[in-house]
Design brief:
With about 425 residues, the chain is α+β, with helices and mostly antiparallel strands. The protein has twelve helices and 22 strands. Strands 1, 4, 5, 6, 7, 9, 10, 11, 12 and 13 form a ten-stranded mixed β-sheet that branches. A six-stranded antiparallel β-sheet has the order 16-18-17-20-15-19, sandwiched between helices. A two-stranded antiparallel sheet has the order 2-3. Strand 4 and strand 5 form a beta hairpin. Helix 4 crosses helix 8. It starts with a strand and ends with a strand.
C-alpha cells in the first residue's frame, strides 16, 4: 500500500483572487492579534481560507462554538456556490518563493493515516519529530469534527540527499498545466502550483519506494533491524495528530463498518526534501508571562546549575531590557531546548503563568518588555540531526525547531473533502 498518493484536490476557480484566498497557517502569529486583524481587512468579502480556519490567537475566546459554526457554514457555502474546482487523483508540484527570495519546492498529495503514529516511540513510516501535547489535540479534533473540508498546513520531510523525488519536477514544469501563480499576502512571498501527470506520479512512487527499502534505510543510517522512517513531520504536527485522532474516533464509533476507503483515513500534506537549500531550521524561542521573574530565575539556576560562561548547553534570557547568557551545567536532555522546556513545564505547573512559542528574536525582545515577563532565546538545530535523532531517540521535545520565519510558513491553498 502506498504511503503517499494522489488526492481529489479542491482549488478555487479562476475568478477568485488567490492573494486574498490564501492565508498563513493558523498556528502562526499567536501573540500578535493585530496580524490577523490585518488579514481580515485585506481579505474583505472575497472568498478566503480565513473563513474556513480558526487562527489559534482566537482559541480562548468565549464564542468558540459560534466560530466553529461559521467555519462549517463557510465550507458548505463555498461547495454549494461551486467556488471550488475539483482535480481528481491529483498531485501538485509547488514552488514557494519565501520572503527573502529562496524557492522551496514540494509536492501536495495525501498520506495514509494508518501509517502514521505520533507517539514518542513510534516505529511507523510517518512519525512526529516533536513531542505531541495531548491537551492540544481535542480542540483541533473539534474543528475537524463537523467541517466537510480539510485545509493542510502540514509539511512532511523526506531525507532524499540524491534529490530523486521532488527536484526532477522542476525540469518538467514547462510541460505541466499551471494551476496557480500569485503573490502571497502580508509579505509571504510567491506561490506557483503545477498539476503533475501520470509519468511524474509513477516516477515519484518509484523514488519513494527506493527510499523505503529496508536495506537502503539500514545502510543510510547505519542501523540494523530498525523500522523504516520515510516521512518526518516538519510542520503541522498537532494538526496531523488531530486528523489521526479523528479517524481513530470514527473507527471506534463505527466498529462494524468498513472505513478503509473513507476520506478521513487520509490527510492532505505537502512533502518537502530535507536537503532543499531553501529549507532552514531555526530555533523556536519562548516567552513566559504572568510570573515572578526573579523567583523563576532563582529556581532555574538551582535546577539546571546555570553559569554565565563556559561550554555546554547555552541559551539567553531577556528581561528588564537586558539579554544575559546562560550555560546549563546540569542538563536534563541531550538538547538545550529539552533541558529548558522540562524546567519551564514543571515551574509553570506549580507556580502558574503562561508560555508561548515565538518565531523571531525581535518579537521575543518586544514581548519581554511587559511586566512579569521573560524571554528565552534558544540556539538553532542542524537539520542533518533530525532523522538520526528521531530514529534513535524518538520525537524531540516540543517546539524544538521551526522551518523558517513565521511569514514563510505554509499558506492554505489546496483543500480536500473529508466526508463521503
Amino acid at each position: 500500500m502506498k504511503t503517499f498518493k494522489e488526492a481529489d484536490i479542491l482549488l478555487p476557480g479562476k475568478e477568485v483572487n488567490m492573494e486574498k484566498w490564501s492565508v498563513i497557517a493558523c498556528d502562526q502569529f499567536t501573540s500578535e492579534p493585530e496580524y490577523w486583524e490585518e488579514v481580515k481587512k485585506f481579505a474583505g468579502d472575497s472568498p478566503s481560507t480565513l473563513d474556513m480556519i480558526l487562527p489559534e490567537v482566537y482559541l480562548e475566546q468565549e464564542n468558540h462554538e459560534e466560530q466553529l459554526k461559521n467555519i462549517e457554514a463557510s465550507m458548505n457555502k463555498y461547495l454549494h456556490e461551486k467556488v471550488f474546482t475539483e482535480y481528481k487523483d491529483a498531485m501538485i508540484y509547488v514552488e514557494r518563493t519565501d520572503s527573502v527570495g529562496n524557492v522551496r519546492a514540494g509536492i501536495v498529495g495525501k498520506i495514509d493515516l494508518e501509517q502514521y503514529d505520533y507517539s514518542k516511540k513510534s516505529t511507523s513510516f510517518i512519525r512526529a519529530t516533536e513531542a505531541t501535547v495531548a491537551e492540544r489535540i481535542p480542540a483541533r479534533v473539534e474543528i475537524r469534527n463537523k467541517p466537510v473540508v480539510e485545509l493542510p498546513h502540514v509539511m512532511l520531510l523526506v531525507d532524499d540527499a540524491g534529490k530523486h523525488v521532488i527536484e526532477p519536477c522542476e525540469q518538467e514544469k514547462e510541460h505541466l498545466p499551471l494551476l496557480y501563480d500569485f503573490d502571497l499576502m502580508m509579505g509571504g512571498g510567491h506561490l506557483c502550483g503545477y498539476l503533475l501527470g501520470k509519468e511524474e506520479k509513477k516516477r515519484i512512487e518509484k523514488a519513494l519506494t527506493f527510499l523505503a527499502d529496508p536495506k537502503c534505510f539500514a545502510d543510510k543510517y547505519h542501523v540494523k533491524d530498525r523500522p523504516v522512517l520515510l516521512f518526518a513531520v516538519g510542520d503541522g504536527n498537532h494538526s496531523l495528530a488531530a486528523a489521526k485522532a479523528y479517524y481513530e474516533q470514527l473507527k471506534a464509533a463505527h466498529p462494524d463498518e468498513d472505513l478503509s476507503e473513507h476520506p478521513a483515513r487520509y490527510a492532505l500534506v505537502e512533502v518537502v526534501n530535507l536537503h532543499s537549500p531553501a529549507l532552514q531550521f531555526e530555533a523556536i524561542h519562548r516567552i513566559v508571562t504572568g510570573v515572578h521573574v526573579e523567583d523563576l530565575l532563582s529556581k532555574m539556576n538551582a535546577a539546571l546549575h546555570i553559569k554565565k560562561e563556559g561550554k555546554g548547553q547555552t541559551f539567553y534570557t531577556i528581561y528588564n531590557g537586558k539579554k544575559k547568557k546562560c550555560v546549563i551545567e546540569r542538563p536534563t536532555s541531550k538538547l538545550t531546548v529539552g533541558s529548558l522546556q522540562r524546567f519551564l513545564d514543571g515551574y509553570l505547573a506549580h507556580n502558574g503563568g503562561k508560555i508561548d512559542y515565538i518565531h523571531g528574536e525581535e518579537v521575543v525582545e518586544s514581548l519581554a518588555r511587559e511586566k512579569d515577563s521573560i524571554g528565552f532565546i534558544l540556539p538553532d538545530m542542524g537539520k542533518e540531526e533530525l532523522f538520526p535523532t528521531v530514529i534513535h531517540d524518538g520525537a524531540l521535545p516540543r517546539k524544538t525547531f521551526s522551518m523558517g520565519h513565521a511569514q514563510d510558513k505554509r499558506y492554505y491553498t489546496e483543500c480536500r473533502k473529508i466526508r463521503k
